[in-house]
């Protein structure tokens, strides 16, 4: 077994040799189409799910989870294939049926010795998600990698590494919940709809919008140097219903807005605070990107169980000076306009824009907010009951901020982000509302 240690906490995980879990039955072979929305978001997402039962130890957890994985791969057979490049130069899946990578691991401690498992600290949670040694690019990383780690206290974790081009957050939750269902011998509540041709570009492509989400923004504030010179620290901040209510009151106080959603006000508040924390110069242009679920916004809507990325990135752009000096209602108003932008015609224009330009959104001068606060994390059950904690092992890129559910409390949101240490100190002060 490989020994993965963390010197700061004494947290050691012994990883076994990786094996392959094949689909339980013969599955379709050949090339599987990925849409242009999938192409735009090909990053590895690493998540960890912790389970502990009062009545059940973890002795058979590995075998139970592994058998269930073999069953769910019959329904989600593209995840048992490999990523390759099509003749058009795009990502595509070769459905080889070679299976998902699976690793069994043992932690030399109990869960309570790990510290805060809700924080996306790659030095700690990273030990619970297997990384392919020597992988140089996305094509060398399997589409699905699973590590089951048993703890001395009887708990276990499932660490999942998956390429975002395969599933967005909603589809990923349907996959993991479905995995739990077949593991317990139940039928799938939401059978997957694998046909991504529903999001094919138009012929000829029609670009009806300018798509500033792809804009390159010059770093005139020299923040890249700050990221290079200082340690990157990760922190989480809880916004309960009282705090969110205060923010909504502040955003509507001046009468510029009649109302706003929780997402809109929190995104606006955090965008401004991050500008202040990084000490951006007033003329620095800053772009906020966030994903809007397009499933019900497409005409016709995507079917329930649609597998893939049904999300589109929309944007707001401002100067740091305007954001910081104007009231909160200004930032929230920009975000409301961005939400309205995500219509069927805008989303199809974005699909066609990629078809023509092959452009990907630039992350310089950008904040990318990913919202997981409405995802069904706490309904997953492999036979040990729902997770006691779950979340990302790490954030995929430096400018990414995550909104996560606070356990089962749908009215509270955990904000997770990483910043250079000096900026994080300022950001923490700004969170005291």
UniProtKB/TrEMBL annotation:
This protein's UniProt keywords: Transferase
Taxonomic superkingdom: Eukaryota
Composition bias, Polar residues: 1-17
Annotated stretches, region: Disordered: 1-20
Keyword set includes Transferase: yes
Family affiliation: Belongs to the plant acyltransferase family.
Protein name as catalogued: Omega-hydroxypalmitate O-feruloyl transferase
Upper lineage: Eukaryota, Viridiplantae, Streptophyta, Embryophyta, Tracheophyta
């Amino acid at each position: 077994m490989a020994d993965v240690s963390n010197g700061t906490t004494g947290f050691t995980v012994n990883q076994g040799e990786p094996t392959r879990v094949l689909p339980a039955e013969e599955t379709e072979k050949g090339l599987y189409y990925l849409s242009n929305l999938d192409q735009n978001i090909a990053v590895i997402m690493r998540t960890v799910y912790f389970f502990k039962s009062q009545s059940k130890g973890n002795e058979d957890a590995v075998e139970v989870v592994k058998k269930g994985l073999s069953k769910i791969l019959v329904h989600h057979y593209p995840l048992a294939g490999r990523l390759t490049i099509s003749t058009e130069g795009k990502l595509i899946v070769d459905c080889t049926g070679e299976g998902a990578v699976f690793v069994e691991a043992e932690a030399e401690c109990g869960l309570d010795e790990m510290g805060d498992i809700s924080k996306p600290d790659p030095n700690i949670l990273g030990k619970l998600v297997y990384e392919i040694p020597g992988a140089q690019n996305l094509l060398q990383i399997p589409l699905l990698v699973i590590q089951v780690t048993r703890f001395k206290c009887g708990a276990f974790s499932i660490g999942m590494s998956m390429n975002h081009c395969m599933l967005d957050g909603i589809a990923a939750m349907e996959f993991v919940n479905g995995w739990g269902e077949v593991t317990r011998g139940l039928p799938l509540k939401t059978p997957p709809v694998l046909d991504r041709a529903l999001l094919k570009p138009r012929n000829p492509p029609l670009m009806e919008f300018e798509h500033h989400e792809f804009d390159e923004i010059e770093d005139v504030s020299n923040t890249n140097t700050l990221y290079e010179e200082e340690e990157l620290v990760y922190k989480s901040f809880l916004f309960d219903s009282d705090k969110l209510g205060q923010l909504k009151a502040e955003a509507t106080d001046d009468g510029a807005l009649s109302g706003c959603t929780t997402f809109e006000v929190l995104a606006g508040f955090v965008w401004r605070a991050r500008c202040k924390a990084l000490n951006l110069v007033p003329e620095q242009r800053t772009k906020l990107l966030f994903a809007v679920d397009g499933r019900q916004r497409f005409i016709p809507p995507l079917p329930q169980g649609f597998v893939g990325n049904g999300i589109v990135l929309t944007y707001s752009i401002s100067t740091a000076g305007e954001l910081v000096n104007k009231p909160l209602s200004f930032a929230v108003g920009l975000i409301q306009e961005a939400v309205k932008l995500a219509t069927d015609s805008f989303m199809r224009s974005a699909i066609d824009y990629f078809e023509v330009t092959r452009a990907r959104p630039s992350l310089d001068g950008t904040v990318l907010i990913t919202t997981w606060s409405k995802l069904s994390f706490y309904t997953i059950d492999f036979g040990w009951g729902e997770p006691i904690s779950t979340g990302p092992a790490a954030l995929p890129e430096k400018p990414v901020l995550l909104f996560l559910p606070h356990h089962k409390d749908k009215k509270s949101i955990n904000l997770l982000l990483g910043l250079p240490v000096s900026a994080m100190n300022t950001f923490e002060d700004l969170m005291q509302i």
